[in-house]
Design goal:
Largest sheet: 4 strands, antiparallel
Strand content: 15-25%
Structural class: alpha/beta
Order of helices and strands: EEEEEHHHHHHHEHHEEHE
Number of strands: 9
Helix content: 40-55%
Oligomer: single chain
C-alpha cells in the first residue's frame, strides 16, 4: 500500500425519512489541512434532499454526527475522535478539560475528555491545571487516547487502502500534550508533602476567600474615601466662590482635572472678567485643593 500524510475516506448512502429521500456524503479525514503542524481528526457530512423533480438539493452539512451515526454506526470511533489530534488528545485537553471539569456539567466534561465517571470524580478533585494534567497521565487517560487513535488510524487505513505517515517530527509538532520530568517531580513532591490532601486544599481555599474579602473590603473603603475627598474638594471650592460674593450658578468644578471654570453655561448670568481676576488674586488658596487652576469662558 502507498503511504500518505493525508488519510481521507468518503462514502455515500441514500435513505428515506418521513417519505423523503436523502443522500448523506460522509468524509473522514486525518490530516493537517489547516497547516497547524499537527494532524487532526475530523468527520463531517453533507446531506442532500431529493425534490419532486428528482434533483438532490443540499440541506445540511458540517458535523451532523447524530445523522452520521444513524446511517453509519460503525463510524463511532471517528465521531469520538472528531477534532482530536492524531495522539487522540482532545483540543486543548488541559485548558478546555479543566474548564469543563470545574464549570460545565458532568456529561459535558465526560464527553469532551472521553473519560469514565470514576475518572471524572478523580479529576474533579484537581485543584489546578498542573495537577489536572498529571492525573490525565497517571490515570492512564493519555495512553488510552493514543490507543483509541491508533485503532482508528488502522481502521481508516483499511478503508482507504493507504498507510498514514506523520509529516512532522514529534519535536516540530504543535498543540501536543506533554508532561515534563520537572512537572512530574514537582507534583510528586507536592503529593508527598500533603499539598493536595483535602484539608490542605480547603485551607488554601479558605485563605483565598479571606484575601478576596480583605481586598474587596479595602476597595470599598478606598472608593468611599475618594468620593468623600471629591465631595470635600467641591464643597471647599464652591464655598470659596460663594464667600467671595459671587454666584455659584455658573461655576463648575472638574475634580478629574482640578479645574474651576466660570461661565460654563451660556444661558446663566456671567461673572465679569474683573470679578474673575479679583477672585483669582484674592482667594485663600490654602483652603482649596492643591494645584487648582481657574478658567473663564
Amino acid at each position: 500500500m502507498t503511504t500518505t500524510n493525508r488519510l481521507c475516506y468518503t462514502v455515500s448512502k441514500r435513505y428515506i425519512q418521513a417519505g423523503t429521500t436523502f443522500e448523506i456524503n460522509v468524509k473522514i479525514l486525518l490530516a493537517d489541512d489547516c497547516k497547524n503542524n499537527i494532524c487532526d481528526w475530523s468527520i463531517t457530512a453533507d446531506i442532500y434532499e431529493q425534490r419532486k423533480n428528482g434533483r438532490f438539493v443540499w440541506c445540511a452539512g458540517g458535523c451532523c454526527h447524530e445523522e452520521i451515526l444513524k446511517r453509519f454506526p460503525q463510524f463511532k470511533m471517528f465521531v469520538d475522535l472528531h477534532l482530536s489530534n492524531h495522539y487522540g488528545a482532545p483540543m486543548y485537553p488541559v485548558e478546555n478539560g479543566f474548564y469543563h471539569i470545574t464549570n460545565s456539567s458532568k456529561e459535558t466534561a465526560i464527553n469532551y475528555l472521553r473519560i469514565t465517571e470514576t475518572e471524572y470524580n478523580l479529576l474533579y478533585q484537581a485543584e489546578d491545571k498542573q495537577y489536572f494534567k498529571y492525573l490525565l497521565y497517571t490515570l492512564g487517560i493519555v495512553e488510552r487516547w493514543k490507543r483509541e487513535s491508533n485503532e482508528a488510524i488502522k481502521k481508516l487505513e483499511e478503508l482507504t487502502g493507504q498507510i498514514w505517515e506523520n509529516p512532522y517530527k514529534p519535536e516540530n509538532e504543535r498543540f501536543t500534550l506533554k508532561l515534563t520530568d520537572e512537572e512530574r517531580t514537582t507534583i510528586t513532591n507536592r503529593i508527598n508533602e500533603g499539598y493536595y490532601r483535602p484539608e490542605a486544599v480547603q485551607a488554601r481555599k479558605d485563605e483565598e476567600k479571606r484575601k478576596a474579602y480583605e481586598k474587596k473590603r479595602a476597595e470599598i473603603i478606598n472608593d468611599c474615601k475618594k468620593k468623600q475627598q471629591k465631595a470635600e474638594n467641591e464643597k471647599r471650592v464652591m464655598l470659596a466662590v460663594l464667600d467671595a460674593g459671587l454666584s455659584v450658578c455658573n461655576v463648575i468644578y472638574y475634580d478629574h482635572s482640578n479645574e474651576l471654570v466660570f461661565n460654563w453655561k451660556d444661558y446663566e448670568t456671567k461673572v465679569t472678567e474683573n470679578d474673575f481676576n479679583k477672585f483669582v488674586s484674592s482667594v485663600n488658596r490654602s483652603l482649596l485643593p492643591a494645584g487648582i487652576t481657574f478658567k473663564m469662558k
